[in-house]
Every structure is written in C-alpha cells, then in structure tokens.
Design goal:
The complex is a heterodimer of chains A (123) and B (203). By secondary structure, chain A is mainly α. Helices cover 60% and strands 0% of the residues of chain A. Chain A has three helices and no strands. The longest helix of chain A is centred in the first third of the chain and has 27 residues. The termini of chain A are far apart. Chain B is of the alpha/beta class and 203 residues long. Chain B has a domain of 137 residues: 3-Layer(aba) Sandwich (Rossmann fold). In chain B, 30% of the residues lie in helices and 8% in strands. In chain B, strand 1, helix 4 and strand 2 form a beta-alpha-beta unit. The radius of gyration of chain B is 19 Å and the shape is globular. The chains are: A mainly alpha (123), B alpha/beta (203). At the A-B interface, loops of A face helix 4 of B.
C-alpha cells in the first residue's frame, strides 16, 4: 500500500502540537493538584517589586512631542525645500510657484500658531 | 523500608528511594534565589554566582528578578527601616515553599550599624530565617556553606507529620504582616509570633 507523502507532515504536526502542550498540561495539573497554594492579597497583587502601587494607571498625560514635530517641520524641512526652490526660481512655471507658495503658507500658519501658543518664548 | 535492608540492597547495587526523598532531592537542587541585594554583601553574592565560585554547581544559578519565580531570599546587606516593609512584601509575594538566608552581620542583627536609628536590628524580627551566616561581609565560601546547610535542611524535611514544612500546613499564614512607618520606629517593632526579644541575663 502506497502511503501518502503528506503522512509525515501530519505526524510531525501532531508531534509539534503535543510537544509544547504536554509540558504545559503537566505544569497545569501539577499546579492544580500538588503545589502548595497559599494565596494572599499581597501575593496576588499585580505589581510585584516590593513597592505598593499608588493611584490609577489609566491617567491622561500631555504629549509634548507634537510641538517639536511642528517646529522641526517649519525650521528644518522647510529649509530643505527652500534651497531647490531658490535655485530653480527663474525657470519655474506659475503652477509650481503657486504650489510652493501654498506649501510655505501652511508652514507659516504653523509658525504663527506656535508663536501664539507661546512655544517660542524661552522659559 | 527498613534502613538495614536498604543498605544491604545498595551493597548489591540496587538503589531504593522514597517519593519524599526524590521530591526533596529535586527541590533542594533547584532552589532559585531572588535577585535582590541591599548592600555590600550583595557584591559577595554576585561573586558567588560568578565563574570563580560558581553557585550553579548547586542548581541555584538562576537568580530570578521576580519574586513570583523565586524560592530563596538571600537578605544580603543592611536592612534599613525604610527598606524593611519592601523586603517583607517581596517575601510575601514569593510562592511557597520559600526559604530565607540572612547573609552577613547586618541582616542578622544590624551589624556595625546596629546603633543607627534607621537600621533594622535583624530581618528575623519580621520574616522566618532558615540560615544565618555571620561575616562582614561573609566570603562566597560562607554563602556556599549556608546554601549547603539550606539544602541539607530541605533534604531532611518530612512532608507528613507534625514537623512538616510550613507550606504544607494549612493553618500557617501565607503572608507576614508588613510594619508601618511610625513616629520613631516601625510599628510594630517586631512580629511577636516569630521573634521574641532574648531574655537579658542579669547578675
């Protein structure tokens, strides 16, 4: 009788499933049947490094990074685009010029917004 | 099984054991200490676990950073009163069965800092200590000796009967009370159930 070439794969699959599940099941049975469980409030606590946890973990905190992101775009990325814009300025079509102006306007709006928020003042 | 028959069998090359001995043999050779040091004794503890002294020979090289996975607490160093509640909480969070080695003079009694207002005069005031090692700090050999003493203790523990270890006694407490910071001292200053001040002999 000719065996299917996929029979080995099936055997391997079964072994591959049993091999990790066996020890896990054994550990589970051992923990249920034999381990001397002595639970308590401190032992069951979530945080485990000696100190008591205080307050609630679900708090809102202020993300400061977005300000850096905006200022970085204005002062750094803008420079990268301004240099080729200045070099190719005389040969640009009206459409390209307008597109560049819109881009600059967006960034200047960002600068004005950051200025109004007081981000630029050194405290 | 009778001891005489047992030694007779072992002479004939037949090894017999009891389930209890097998269980204890496994237990004593896989003690995982809690990775936790308080002062200079911790340096000796680190040296003990390194290649030169090699605590791995005793099956105890796996220093666990989590109390959930540790069996042995080596109190290595001065326990200040500020640190004591944390030490006891860590001990409470370790699963049974658990053991404690008080390493060095400070962990035993406060050591050279005993007169300090902020030093706990021995961790055995709050948690049960299995092995004390004197020394300031004890050398790695001393820690290994303490470890072997603990292994012998584990090996000799009967799993049934009135002298069975604490973790098999259903009534034994799972946690020890954690002291609070009082006005001048920890409150209470010791756990009277496991530690009583020694009687002072007066002439």
């Amino acid at each position: 009788m000719e065996t299917s070439p996929y029979l080995f794969l099936t055997v391997f699959l079964v072994i591959a499933i049993l091999f990790p599940l066996g020890p896990l099941a054994l550990a589970w049975i051992w923990a249920k049947k034999f381990s001397p469980a002595k639970p308590g409030a401190q032992k069951n606590a979530t945080y485990e490094c000696g100190l008591e946890s205080k307050g609630d973990a679900l708090i809102q905190f202020k993300a400061q990074y977005y300000l850096y992101g905006i200022i970085f775009l204005i002062f750094d990325v803008e420079t990268i685009f301004l240099l080729p814009f200045a070099v190719a300025f005389t040969g640009l079509s009206v459409g390209a010029f307008l597109a560049m102006m819109v881009f600059l306007l967006l960034l200047v709006e960002g600068l004005a917004w950051a200025w109004m928020k007081g981000v630029l003042t050194w405290k | 099984m009778d001891e005489g028959l047992r030694s007779e069998l072992s002479k004939q090359g037949i090894f017999t054991t009891k389930l209890e001995e097998l269980y204890n043999w496994g237990r004593k050779n896989s003690v995982w200490p809690l990775q936790f040091g308080l002062a200079c004794c911790a340096i000796e503890m680190i040296a003990t676990s390194m290649a030169r002294y090699d605590l791995a020979r005793f099956g105890a090289e796996v220093f666990r950073p989590s109390p959930r996975q540790a069996d042995l607490m080596i109190v290595a160093g001065t326990v200040t009163k500020k640190m004591a509640p944390q030490v006891i909480r860590l001990y409470n969070q370790m699963p049974e069965p658990k053991y404690v080695i008080a390493m060095g003079a400070c962990a035993i009694s406060g050591g050279p800092f005993k007169q300090g207002y902020n030093v706990l005069k021995g961790i055995d005031r709050y948690i049960p200590v299995d092995v004390h090692i004197p020394g300031c700090p004890p050398r790695p050999e001393a820690l290994i000796h303490a470890f072997m003493t603990l292994q012998r203790k584990i090996d000799e523990q009967k799993l049934t009967g009135p002298n069975r270890p604490r973790h098999l006694v259903a009534d034994a407490p799972s946690e020890f009370p954690i002291p609070e910071f009082g006005e001048h001292d920890l409150v209470p200053p010791s756990n009277p159930k496991i530690w009583q001040p020694p009687e002072r002999a007066r002439a």
